[in-house]
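Re: your question from the hallway

Yes, I did run it. Sequences:
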Amino acid sequence: MSNLDRRTFLQAGLGVGGLMLSSSLSRSWAQQGDPIKIGLIIPLTGATSQFGATMAQAAKIAETEINAVGGVRGRPIQIVVEDDQSNPEAAVRAAHKLIDVDKVVAIGGSYASAVTSAIAPLCWDGKTVLLTSSGADSITKLPHDGYIFRTSPTVTLQGTSVGKYAVELGAKKMFFLGPQTPFAQSYIDIISGIFKATGGTGNGLVYEDKKSSYRSEVDQALKESPDVIVLGGYVPDTSVVLKDLYRAGYSGKKIGFSFGINDALTKAVPAEVSEGAYSLVPSAAENSEAYKRLISKMKRPSLDSYSCQVYDHVVLTSLALARATSGQANGTAVRDNLRAISEGEGKRLDDAAEALKAVVVGGQVNYDGPSGPLEFADNGDVKGVFFRYEQVEGGKLVVRKVG
Amino acid sequence: MISYLVFAGTIAGFYALLSLGLVTAWGQGGLVNLGLVGFVGLGAYTSALLSGAAFPIWIDWIAAAVVSAAVGLALCFVVRNLRGDYLAIVTLGFAEILRLAETNEKWLTKGSDGISGIVAPLKSDLGESFPFFYLIMTWTLVGIVAFLLGCLLRSPFGRALRAVRDDEQIAAVAGKSVLRLKLQAFGIGAALSGLAGALYAHFTSYIAPDVFVVQLTIYIFLTVTVGGQTRLAGAVVGSIALVALLEASRFIAAAIPGLDAVQIASLREFAIAVTLILVMQLRPEGAFRMTNERSGLSASRAASESCYGKRAIVDDAT
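Structure:
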């Protein structure tokens, strides 16, 4: 086959390129009546991809619900999903495609903090709203001109809640075990601070993720004989740490975050390994109808908070655009109207379709989604989040407290 | 659409710089540098930190190339006795060490938060036309580097380097300084990686340790393999082909009906693997073949040798 000469090779390459160019060019000649596009950059492959599939499904459900009641300003909405490959470099390429080719009004999803930080400048330069489920405090400190909305509670808030709950459970000596992330050290400082304020002690250890054993880290933690261990990792490393804690015979309390201790984890480890571990889940209000409706539509017993947030990213964008009755349907319109439909004195609605109908007839609406009440501070951080405290019991997560 | 193509073209330019470095070190020098991405990161951080300390951009970029080259030389000197797979493993590990250092030395690199707001040259002055400017600047640099490398590799230095690649002992017997040639080739590769990293950092304005993971190294090896590992033209054409493949697969995979998001994403990764397998099967020498040089001593010999120009390619693939 080596007689495939260079000319044929190049011609074939140019042919494929040309085909792709022409097909994408025809798409960019969007006219009135064509769908309003909402981009999603979510982790579908790679290390952070455990929620990618459900994020995409949840967004699809939001799309169907909005379009079932006529879409936004007489135009259907369309979700355009791009994979971030768990890599900021790939995410930047994906974001350029969404902003420049698809002309999306907003980008939702963006999960890992490094991915969000990487695509954020493109979004505010391109006047596109970025709705993120990342936690790192640094994100909303960027000069984003109001284009960033964060639906996930910040690291500081999550750390404080975990610390307070551990104290409430009667623990005195805390030890934190977590991978090197933008927030690992802040967790140690925040939670230790809470313990010291109540007369306890706190310490921590930051480990390298992707290891196959954390025996030495666990030994080091147990040397301090803590009565609560806070697990700051994601599912892959947390499952290994839990197994090593079990082998080492640790019998104290374990608390983690919803990105580490969740359904994926309870399926990945034997029930006796995860037994008794607590998990902090950012959540909607107790018995939220929106949440129940979403999980029944997805035919799942429960759903992680991040997929709920992605659902809300699509709904918030649609409602904001529907409220902006005049002017172009673009990112700036989303930014300027988003707060008006998610907070304030308007009628509290937790159903996307009902909220859209109310907005269309000019009503004041305060939309509360499956991920929470969705009220935003001036810097774009979400306010008034509830937390659900869950505990693993016989391999399943059971709600212990909402507050 | 145009701005997207300009962006993709600029990315192809970064990949081309990296590929040119890899052709020099690997294709011409036989040094498998799987730690390529480590040097990209080193260059990116050097330039970002210096520009943060208010040094002018041209100093930042030169420093990025110099620091990467210096670290590359030091690494190459330390592992001077390793070849082939062993060198590959060590360089792979070295890139990981650099990434961990970037993650943990928070006082310098802000850890895994990354450095944001890296200034781009003339961005505020140029406004809308900045992406075009960066595209032209990147490809001008690629052109200059390719021209200089072309001159270098045609010179006696290039011939000696290829001799080292083909058989170190023969090169040594012929009086060539094997170590010095290896250091030079590795250093050039590292310097170009550092420069590409610096260009990338100032273009996207944000870097974090997670940006510099092994995936990029694999992309560049794919580029060079597709283009022809010994040829500078192959590096440039391969980079354009790779970016076209990466970006075109978005549109093609999304157009296939009946797939969910995860399947589409997986299909894209799959397409890249299949491309590599196809290229290795159908055209293992890449788009541009290795050229043989005539010695200039016995011009008549070439015609009579039936396997002239073929044998060497097959042998070299090992």
